[in-house]
Amino acid sequence: RASLSPLVWGAAVGFTSLWALHVQTVHLDTEAPLISDETRVDPATSIEFPTTLTIPSKVPLPQFTLIGVGVRTVSFLRVKVYSVGFYADLNNPNLKIPKTATPQEKIEHIIQNTACVLRIIPTRSTSYSHLRDGFMRALQGRMRLLQQNGTLTSEEEASAQSPLRKLKSIFPNTPLAKHAPLDILLTEPEPSQPRSLVFRDLGAVQNDWVAKHFVLAYFEGDGISPPLKQSVVTALEGFGK
């Protein structure tokens, strides 16, 4: 499998900017991701997600399979902010999940061992800063949780501070249009370097803790989107070997 570190990814029609990640620039063959004809609809918003997603690149990326979808709501009014789809490279040979594992164990194994994509599609025009604030709250909450249960080392906490500041800085003070997808890629683990979290057309941060726990936060407890978590749990019930 080729390294993902020299990557530029522009992943939606209408977006032409490219991102440089790490050392060497590699251009995509096309602007738009290749998607399957089949889609899955979030029942809460009627927003559609392709069941498979292939991102063209000179550096080969895997085909991502849609595992689950759900809506993110906020406030006591239950305002629907965005629908989110969770994709992963389920053909990665590093996935060795027994069918007897719990759904939570399967989710965590997938996130820890293969490349994943979160596709966020706003139900209405929103702002990048609004999304940024939600992302930062989720990561800060997860850091507090791990501090409380003693599973966050001082080294992990210290090394995450600069990437967290960078993550906060990459979001522009501009709108994100209704139904415009924001794709967030978690690169697969590599022994020679930390994992990266790549935001389409915005930038990337490289840190194992931030990259991994950004995605894990979506599945902590009931999850940032409880319908997403339940959808993923249901899909993974029979998954494994």
Automatic annotation (TrEMBL):
Give a GO molecular function annotation for the protein: intramolecular lyase activity
User: Chalcone isomerase domain location, by residue?
Assistant: 63-91, 105-233
Domain of life, per UniProt, equals Eukaryota
Record has Transmembrane helix as a keyword: no
Asked whether the keyword Transmembrane is assigned, the reply is no
Name the keywords, alphabetized. Signal
Record's SUPFAM superfamilies?
A: Chalcone isomerase (SSF54626)
Which residues belong to the signal peptide in this entry?
1-20
**Gene3D superfamilies, per database record:** 3.50.70.10
| Record's protein name | Chalcone isomerase domain-containing protein
The record lists the organism as: Neolentinus lepideus HHB14362 ss-1
